[in-house]
Amino acid sequence: MADLTHLDERGRARMVDVSGKADTARSARAGARVRMEPSTLDKILDGSLPKGDVLSVARTAAIMAAKQTSNLIPLCHPLPIASVEIEFSKAGDGLLEIEADVRLTAKTGAEMEALTAVSIAGLTVYDMCKAVDRAMSVTDVRLLEKSGGKSGHYVREPDV
Amino acid sequence: MADLTHLDERGRARMVDVSGKADTARSARAGARVRMEPSTLDKILDGSLPKGDVLSVARTAAIMAAKQTSNLIPLCHPLPIASVEIEFSKAGDGLLEIEADVRLTAKTGAEMEALTAVSIAGLTVYDMCKAVDRAMSVTDVRLLEKSGGKSGHYVREPDV
Amino acid sequence: MADLTHLDERGRARMVDVSGKADTARSARAGARVRMEPSTLDKILDGSLPKGDVLSVARTAAIMAAKQTSNLIPLCHPLPIASVEIEFSKAGDGLLEIEADVRLTAKTGAEMEALTAVSIAGLTVYDMCKAVDRAMSVTDVRLLEKSGGKSGHYVREPDV
Amino acid sequence: MADLTHLDERGRARMVDVSGKADTARSARAGARVRMEPSTLDKILDGSLPKGDVLSVARTAAIMAAKQTSNLIPLCHPLPIASVEIEFSKAGDGLLEIEADVRLTAKTGAEMEALTAVSIAGLTVYDMCKAVDRAMSVTDVRLLEKSGGKSGHYVREPDV
Amino acid sequence: MADLTHLDERGRARMVDVSGKADTARSARAGARVRMEPSTLDKILDGSLPKGDVLSVARTAAIMAAKQTSNLIPLCHPLPIASVEIEFSKAGDGLLEIEADVRLTAKTGAEMEALTAVSIAGLTVYDMCKAVDRAMSVTDVRLLEKSGGKSGHYVREPDV
Amino acid sequence: MADLTHLDERGRARMVDVSGKADTARSARAGARVRMEPSTLDKILDGSLPKGDVLSVARTAAIMAAKQTSNLIPLCHPLPIASVEIEFSKAGDGLLEIEADVRLTAKTGAEMEALTAVSIAGLTVYDMCKAVDRAMSVTDVRLLEKSGGKSGHYVREPDV
């Protein structure tokens, strides 16, 4: 049990003590996919929605959600986020890829911020398109890359 | 474009006007899965974590997140949530299933609240176990069932 | 266990389902006391602090905290608060009494809102005076009276 | 003093009791202007910013801010907002006009929500353009129209 | 477009990366005015409102709003605010001047915090007096002075 | 009045300027007690509630509340909390003791975070048990110990 650091020796939750760690530059990149009808993705991407507003709203929601991470995930530390960037791309027929890149200098890393950002971006896309495609799903919310801190550089192995 | 009600005739975002709709009883049920190493799921479920605290914290986070939905998803209406229940179960080797059931009486439905609840539950499980299993992913965030309102009863077709 | 309605038959937390209940007018009155050096209370009450700003800030904090109750207490329902009033009085040497009166029309009662209001009022007084009296304590946070709803009128028995 | 209903007979703040009022349909329309260098407004409006993202972000911020009103303005009641629409237009050289239209059914009106929305929209425009035009100002934040409730229909007299 | 740093090369919003900047002491001073009937301002200032509670509530709201800035303005960085002071003064007949002074040590400046503080102070004054003077407006929300950081000292030129 | 640092020379509230202070390691420990029927405490502690969920929910609420402190207490500074631990124990018949230990590195101390955590933990216990014991009270919310910063180590004198 010693390896699940969010739980003390009796299995109770705690916010892990990072007070002894140094502030270092850290970055995290997370991804998520939204699976939908190809025609829904076409509407979002191909211009029948002037100004791309679905993705613009989702991007803003994602950036704001990154800043809410420690209010949503109980044991997360509040972190001084220095940068958030959100990318959307088409990953296949009816498959929207979302990526978030978060940077900061702190005693602990930014992966939860990046994961929260892509999750809320995906849910915002769902919310704005659900009237035409209720069966959409948000999937593959995952950490893609992480650097800084004691655990060093991590790059997710590509899916087979 | 008329069918994407979150966008007006010029493609700009707006909070859809529900002021003319009646308050009716509504419920929504959403699901998500967390994919992880089988040994991680065993630690969560099989008693090596006394008191099951990972799931207890994730359940509390999910309930509180449901109440934050309209602060996270830009075009969601604030809703007077009447009930939230969260269930966890094992859906397979290294696969944790999360379900949220949300009920309320309002002018619009509860699906975003249920989807937000399972997403944050999944991210909380990730956060509490990431030290031992960084490659975990949250997947299949989807609406399972929905009732109440003009659009009637919806049940998601089973995945093939 | 059936009588602890926040826990289901397996002891797990849930937000109690109030969707079947009627909206009725409800009110709750809660109290708290702040115990401090008599000279600290004198500074707060007797005019050496022009404009009584400690109590004014504490009153504003209490009203705002009542509106945050469902974001702080995990299983509380969000409620459409219709009125909050905060009273301060001297209950004895070095003893400040705080009372909150909350009214609303909803499916469930306002006692947690009133209790949260007086707690935060007390903590705000502590915060503003701690530089001169670190040993202050907030005590006797309790429900004084409650009306509306199925459980009927409740008045706390006077302390002996 | 009786006419300043947010203050009781002793001048202390309180959230005005609306528990005896009926739920009625209400709407409010507010406006604000952002004064800037004409070249800054041209950049925002005339296409040198592809996709109009400044206004899209400001619109999203405004809608989300409307939902935060009761958490920002101490004596505001939490209200079940049913609709928010935000409009931007050019009101003159270097003058951006912002309008918010808020609708809801409640015991009290939506004017603070509309005023908060346009204020935050204006500040968001400032934030996104301040690197090129630090002397911008947000001005003329005002209620334009209001309907519903006991006080009846209000239309602001045109500025001379 | 390169000069609008909140937008990337394709015009999409992002939170500007400040991770490479040093933490330095910064301060910002912003102002706003509330225009109202002279008799309304007299009620606020001249003692017919015992204890000056309108301004006390507005001051508390402004300080709390400064701390919410990064939750309201989408691309603002969360900052460790070290000090907020709010001043009210009479700027003319029926004209209330509000000033906020914000200090902090961080990688980016405090101007949005100061501007948010005075905006919410103005809206709070409106809210508390709107029953007697619905035509009040908040105007001239502007940065007065700013120091610290690479861009150096800024003092707004006096209005003519 | 000079000794009440939250008030300026005219008695008005302000967030005390800590911008000139150094970041140092700080910790604070606070306590609270919940007084209830002995049979209620037995239900919470002695296993008739499988998995101890009341305390698990209260612990999660306390940790999350610590992170909300500066949003609740008007003049508190936002602080980068590095650790929160919550302990529950039986302090006597029908008397539950709650302790919070908060650590961080900042320009000002963590005592309000620890006090807020135990207060919300106590209110959460009340909320989850109020259906069986409405007369419960939260009492003795107090600072137990504090270290770091200019004012040095503080240990509360034991109650007589």
Give the total of beta strands of chain A. 5
Largest sheet of chain A: 5 strands, antiparallel
Terminal residue distance of chain A: 31 Å
The ordered string of helix (H) and strand (E) elements of chain A is EHHEEHEE
Q: Given this structure, which CATH class of chain A is correct?
A: Alpha Beta
Oligomeric state: homohexamer
The CATH architecture of chain A is 2-Layer Sandwich
Account of the 3D structure:
Six copies of one chain form a homohexamer. With 160 residues, chain A is α+β, with helices and mostly antiparallel strands. Chain A has one domain (24-148): Alpha-Beta Plaits. Helix content of chain A is 29%, strand content 31%. Chain A has three helices and five strands; from the N terminus they run βααββαββ. Chain A has a five-stranded antiparallel beta sheet with strand order 2-3-1-4-5. In chain A, a hairpin with a 6-residue loop joins β4 (137-147) and β5. Chain A is elongated, with a radius of gyration of 17 Å. The two termini of chain A are 31 Å apart. Chains in contact: A-B, A-D, A-E, A-F, B-C, B-D, B-F, C-D, C-E, C-F, D-E, E-F. At the B-D interface, loops of B face α2, β2 and β3 of D.
